[in-house]
Write a structure and sequence with these properties.
transferase, 7 strands, single chain, methyltransferase activity, Methyltransf_25, methyltransferase, Rossmann fold, 8 helices
Length: 250
């Protein structure tokens, strides 16, 4: 298997620094997830704090926000990149024993590495890298891992049904990244990765995708995956352009 590109410190650090400038709705996706989790916690007895698992949690930016607004919550961050998890450990150090770190690919048996059953699983900008079969297998793992009544929130990239609309959306994102590189908002060290994304997804739009690429699927397709995996309810509480929050209730 080739070396995972995010498992080098330079790539991980570059992405961590550039992420809010690369994704036009990076903050809004996190806002939506944090708000929904806040509502979930508010409806639970104070004696039953949430345990939250972040799948593909990278450098810990989302969990940092969650743990700040939910002071009783505990969390586990799962990622295959040791370089990303090293950044997450530094970022989440102020929360001490409230956070555990698990090295695992999402295609592996990550549930076996969890110390406790989660009430909520979250993910942002990670699962779209899985091919359709891998997504379905992951959603089955998620549904099987969650406690009854638990919540799954996937803030991710989802394609429109129409190919022309999809291509136009990808081109708008490419233009956003080009502007970020030209203005200096995206650090110079991350320019090769951004340019590589544009080459793969815009210049070579429509070429077949493999696991690890941007394997975008529609929200409707993935909600069907949720229901087939065993969630009793699935919906989209937030959507803008290429980004949605997909919600599954166990």
């Amino acid at each position: 298997m080739p070396e995972y590109r995010w498992n080098t410190s330079s790539f991980a650090e570059g992405y961590d620094a550039a992420a809010p400038q690369i994704h036009p709705y990076y903050v809004q996706v996190q806002d939506g997830i944090v708000g929904i989790l806040g509502d979930l916690a508010a409806g639970r007895p104070t004696s039953e704090p949430l345990h939250i698992v972040d799948l593909g949690g990278g450098s810990g930016r989302l969990l940092e926000r969650i743990l700040k607004i939910l002071p009783a919550a505990t969390a586990t961050i799962v990622d295959q990149s040791e370089a990303f998890l090293a950044i997450a450990e530094r970022r989440l150090a102020p929360f001490g024993g409230r956070v555990e770190f698990v090295v695992s690919r999402l295609q592996e048996d990550w549930p076996a590495k969890l110390a406790q059953q989660p009430n909520a699983l979250v993910s942002t900008s990670a699962i779209h890298h899985l091919d359709p079969g891998e997504k379905q297998a992951l959603y089955q793992q998620v549904a099987g891992t969650l406690a009854t009544g638990g919540l799954f929130l996937n803030g991710d990239e989802v394609r429109p049904e129409d190919d022309a609309e999809y291509q136009a959306t990808m081109e708008r994102w490419a233009q956003f990244m080009r502007a970020g590189m030209a203005s200096g908002a995206i650090p110079t060290g991350f320019h090769p990765a951004a340019q590589g994304w544009i080459e793969r997804n815009v210049v070579r739009f429509g070429e077949p995708k493999n696991s690890g690429d941007d394997c975008h699927e529609t929200a409707a397709t993935q909600l069907d995956y949720f229901l087939a995996a065993g969630f009793r309810r699935a919906d989209v509480p937030w959507h803008c352009e290429l980004w949605s929050i997909l919600r599954g209730v166990k």
